[in-house]
Amino acid sequence: MSIPPKSTPLVAPGHTRPVTHLSFSPIQDDGTFLLVSSCKDGNPMLREWTGDWIGTFLGHKGAVWSTKLSPDASRAATGSADFTAKVWDTYSGHPLHSFPHNHIVRSVALSPSSSHLLTGGQEKKVRIFDLTRPDAEPDFLLDSGVLSHDGMVRSVVWVGDHTGVTAGEDGKVKWWDLRTRKLTTSLVFPGPITSMELSPQTQRLVVTSGNTVAFIPVLPSNNQNTHSLTLPYCPSSATIHPILQDRFVTGNSGDEWVRVHGIDGEEREVLKGHHGPVHCVEFSPDGEMYASGSGTIRLWQTTPGKTYGLWQGQSNGN
Questions:
Q1: Are 124 and 153 a contacting pair, CB within 8 Å?
Q2: How far apart are CA 81 and CA 195, in angstroms?
Q3: Measured between alpha carbons, how far is 145 from 130 in angstroms, rounded to an integer?
Q4: Tell me, what's the pLDDT at 316?
Q5: Which pLDDT band holds residue 6 (cuts at 50, 70, 90)?
Q6: C-alpha distances out from residue 125 to 99, 189, 265, 270, 303, Å
């Protein structure tokens, strides 16, 4: 009887404080992709799909809570506790734009063509910046008054050409028409939203709130149902397998473990290796691995023992 290979994570070192957010680019024309990490050390890092370090974006004066790459990976956007959002050239590492805010920026999202930037955070306001006119004042996405949400904006994502989705500590997920800047629909959770990530291949939003993880169609008119599960713990973040869609991975700030669940919620694996709370998890776009962030970044193989990236396949001693 052969023992299945044990999952051995690759450690991607470099950060000096807790890692707050992880995001992969789509698969590029050459078949590779990039990983970008946000950290309380204020220095977001760009990595190859293998986990190898490419460079660090230097310029923020406070914790970075969110970093996202453009679809072609030529641009990165960051949101920081220094009350700014910045847009960067990923080839040179140079900042292209810096947009001041009046409080901490918790989440950013670039439009598919990198022409616009969405931001949200502690101010409870969602802004949209026109990167072709960076000196112009931003527009605001406001819901009946001067605020976008009745709590901190935890996450903003850009869906398709002209839809923005925002999630807040008020427990609401809101869809906005970015052409008219108007609210189109919303969904209410019983407690604060702790994370919301876009899964482009599955066309779903993965949302965590309290003990709940929910897989929501990116556009409510798709006639797909929301798939929602209650877990025995409070996930900090969750990510769905982009191809198979048969499993999801979670982080948990209550312990130091990464968990793999079947899409029915059954716990399949508990992965140990981090030395602190796991704040964020993200599947790679090819589904071959997932990244988790605590004090360090760890990369885990979906199929341990397979030759992939820096992992050399195991023969189980045969």
A1: yes
A2: 18
A3: 22
A4: 44
A5: confident
A6: 14, 19, 34, 37, 41
Rounded Cα distance between 168 and 156, Å, is 9
Amino acid letter, 153 = V
How big is the CA angle at 190 (ends 185 and 195), to the nearest 5 degrees?
Answer: 75
Report residue 89 as tokens: 């050239």
Buried b / exposed e across 158-179, counting CB within 10 Å, b at 16+? Answer: bbeeebbbbbbbbbbbbbbebe
Question: What is the b/e burial string over 68-101, where b = at least 16 CB atoms within 10 angstroms of the residue's CB?
Answer: bbbbebebbbbbbbbbbbbbbebeeeebebbbeb
What are the structure tokens assigned to 83, written together? 């009350």
Q: pLDDT of 52-91, one tens digit each? A: 999 999 999 999 999 999 999 999 999 999 999 999 999 9
- CA dist., res. 168 & res. 144, Å (int): 16
Question: Which tokens hold the place of 166?
Answer: 């925002």
Establish how many alpha carbons lie within 13 A of residue 72's alpha carbon, considering only the half-sphere containing its beta carbon. 9
Q: Which residues lie below 8 Å from residue 231, measured CB to CB, with a gap of 6+?
A: 211, 212, 213, 250, 261, 265
DSSP 8-state code for residue 194: -
Judged against a pLDDT cut of 50, whether residue 283 lies above it is answered with yes
φ, ψ of residue 137 to 5 degrees: the values are -70, 145
CB proximity list for 4: less than 8 A, separation 6 or greater: 304, 305
HSE at residue 311, side-chain half, CA atoms within 13 A, is: 23
Give the type of residue at 64. V
Token pair listed for 155: 């996450």
Give φ, ψ of 266 to 5 degrees.
-65, 130
Question: Please, are residues 168 and 152 in contact by the beta-carbon 8 Å criterion?
Answer: yes
